[in-house]
Amino acid sequence: MMEEEELEFVEELEAVLQLTPEVQLAIEQVFPSQDPLDRADFNAVEYINTLFPTEQSLANIDEVVNKIRLKIRRLDDNIRTVVRGQTNVGQDGRQVKEITRDIKQLDHAKRHLTTSITTLNHLHMLAGGVDSLEAMTRRRQYGEVANLLQGVMNVLEHFHKYMGIPQIRQLSERVKAAQTELGQQILADFEEAFPSQGTKRPGGPSNVLRDACLVANILDPKIKQEIIKKFIKQHLSEYLVLFQENQDVAWLDKIDRRYAWVKRQLVDYEEKYGRMFPREWYMTERIAVEFCHVTRAELAKIMRARAKEIEVKLLLFAIQRTTNFEGFLAKRFSGCTLTDGTLKKLESPPPSTNPFLEDESAPEMEELAIEKGELDQPKKPKVPDNPFHGIVSKCFEPHLYVYIESQDKNLGELIDRFVADFKAQGPPKPNTDEGGAVLPSCADLFVYYKKCMVQCSQLSTGEPMIALTTIFQKYLREYAWKILSGNLPKTTTSSGGLTISSLLKEKEGSEVAKFTLEELCLICSILSTAEYCLATTQQLEEKLKEKVDVSLTERINLTGEMDTFSTVISSSIQLLVQDLDAACDPALTAMSKMQWQNVEHVGDQSPYVTSVILHIKQNVPIIRDNLASTRKYFTQFCIKFANSFIPKFITHLFKCKPISMVGAEQLLLDTHSLKMVLLDLPSIGSQVVRKAPASYTKIVVKGMTRAEMILKVVMAPHEPLVVFVDNYIKLLTDCNTETFQKILDMKGLKRSEQSNMLELLRQRLPTPPSGADGSSSLSLMAPTPEQESSRIRKLEKLIKKRL
């Protein structure tokens, strides 16, 4: 039975002694042991097998068992000793705890005794302080009161939790009563020294009032505010009398006198009362700020009454002098009193801060030089360095319509002067060295815009800026119509008053004289000017958005005006294209009227080709040199001319019928010559050879290669029919029956012969996929540019051999 109980105890002990790996590792580090019995993964079977590896080793089993029992007894003795030791420690701990409790009680008693003594001392100080405070108040000993009152209030804070005690509460009420009496007494002293009505007490400030201000710093902030308010009101009372609405000096033309008066008052205050008020009251700045609020209200009132008398020069004079005064305040004061609300008036909102304020408030606005195509580079809105900006000048904003109307009138006169100057001076002289000259009037216009924008942004960044933007838009359009579009040259057959589009239609419909050198230069000059205006208008829009209030930026949009200048550019380019295109028309007409079936041999390029090349060499260098500063628009001219000339050339090519084999070879040679000239067109006649733009080259190669392929089909024998038709489909990617019939006409075939060939073409044309026009499948059959170039080279060799 005992053995079973011991076995159960061992099993329970094993269950309890299942230590975590971390604990086991710590034990092994502290008590290292090589005994297998100390291992966490002890295995009894393995241990027994280690003790008795063979049957012969069982002979000394009794000796081994005795050793293990001895070891068990030793472990039991050790455990018993440790347990008894822990029992003694517990008794010792209880004794120590009792001693510690006694010490803590003594500590609490000491602390309470110290607190009691300190409280009694504070109570004695408070009672004596209150008595002294009441006595000093009656004797107006404000210097001593200032020091004593702060000490009494600090001591009183220690008794906040003892207010339930009648004596403490009574002392607290006496302190509050003393504070109230001090406040009323100090206000009365200031009222006596600086009465609201009548004159100041002679003799200036006294030390009593200076000490009273020190006391007011400790009292309720309302006392300090009341002192400041009454003093400033009394100090500015003279100003309200001198500059009453009915006084002559109150009007805008004498606004300088207002600011001169306050400057004298500030100097007078510093001399007489500068030491009376504490420095941290910022009394000089407060006087200036209150003067600004009063002046703003007075000016607004008088301007409403005499609005009809306000002229733009008078308004700008008053604004300029006011902003100068605000700049003076910014240099003199920090603006720290603008946000404390001590003297804030409901009718006078805080001055608006202009995030786009610039140092451009000099007495006279300087006209800033403007680089070609740009105003000031856009800047990030900077933090205003003048906190006083707008504190007075805000009152002028409702009357800025006078300024806007004046700028409307001035800009109208400026545009009229531009028109008159152009008529009197004529177009700019040709300038082939530096490119087409920008009309000087556009720079003058944007300089004036810059001046107006700067002025208006200093006056207001709100609705007046939107109104000014509308005026800008109006005269940008007028400049585009009257100065640019209105001065584009007309042909000799055109009558006055025609629009550009009607002029171009007329040029298309009849043979007209070419533009002169001066007219070509004028068109290029107008194009360059329009390009300058387009770029500058975009930057003007960005600058306006930068200066206007953030909430109004969406209302500034000059896209329509930029589109107007883009239209002028397109019209100018189209005029240049139509002029050169029309000059080439007679040569193409001559080509179509030649008897190509009678040509007997292939010679040099035909006279019509020479004529076309001559016109190109006459016009293109002039246009290129005058558009040197706007290279992209010269490239547009080249592309538009190629897109116009090549289809017209192919149209006239179809009119050359019938054509003999030799005639077709001559036409092919002429076509190749024109192709080479067109590829060289962007740099023709230039000493500096530049590679033509890839977009232009692609258009010329595609168009003129089609003309060459048409002639190659004409040169091919039409029998056998299948071979001829397949060759046509192979050479022309855009093959169709209409083009095929024109080619048959060029070959001189009769209608009866053509019908069979057309029917065969319809049969052999690949069927386009559903929903497509067949261009994709046909393009797959087209020869590559390399193949075409090879064929053309072979044809050239053949022509040279025949020559």
UniProtKB/TrEMBL annotation:
Q: Work out whether the entry's keyword set contains Transport.
A: yes
Chief localization: membrane
Q: Which residues form the Vps53 N-terminal domain?
A: 95-422
The signal peptide here is none
Identify the InterPro entries for this entry. Answer: Vps53, Vps53_C, Vps53_C_sf, Vps53_N
Task: Spell out the GO cellular component terms annotated for this protein, sorted alphabetically and separated by semicolons.
Answer: cytosol; endosome membrane; GARP complex; recycling endosome
Q: What is the annotated localization of this protein?
A: Endosome membrane; Golgi apparatus, trans-Golgi network membrane; Recycling endosome
Might you name a Gene Ontology BP term for this protein? Answer: lysosomal transport
Region Disordered, annotated ranges? 764-793
Q: List the Gene3D superfamilies.
A: Vacuolar protein sorting-associated protein 53, C-terminus
* Record's keyword terms, sorted: Coiled coil, Endosome, Golgi apparatus, Membrane, Protein transport, Transport
Identify its protein family.
Answer: Belongs to the VPS53 family.
Matches recorded under PANTHER family: VACUOLAR PROTEIN SORTING-ASSOCIATED PROTEIN 53 HOMOLOG, VACUOLAR SORTING PROTEIN 53
Function recorded in the entry: Acts as a component of the GARP complex that is involved in retrograde transport from early and late endosomes to the trans-Golgi network (TGN). The GARP complex is required for the maintenance of the cycling of mannose 6-phosphate receptors between the TGN and endosomes, this cycling is necessary for proper lysosomal sorting of acid hydrolases such as CTSD. Acts as a component of the EARP complex that is involved in endocytic recycling. The EARP complex associates with Rab4-positive endosomes and promotes recycling of internalized transferrin receptor (TFRC) to the plasma membrane.
The record's subunit annotation is: Component of the Golgi-associated retrograde protein (GARP) complex, also called VFT (VPS fifty-three) complex, composed of VPS51, VPS52, VPS53 and VPS54. Component of the endosome-associated retrograde protein (EARP) complex, composed of VPS51, VPS52, VPS53 and VPS50/Syndetin. EIPR1 interacts with both EARP and GARP complexes and mediates the recruitment of the GARP complex to the trans-Golgi network. Interacts with VPS50 in an EIPR1-independent manner.
What is the name of the protein in this document? Vacuolar protein sorting-associated protein 53 homolog
Species of provenance: Ictidomys tridecemlineatus
Which gene does this sequence derive from? Answer: VPS53
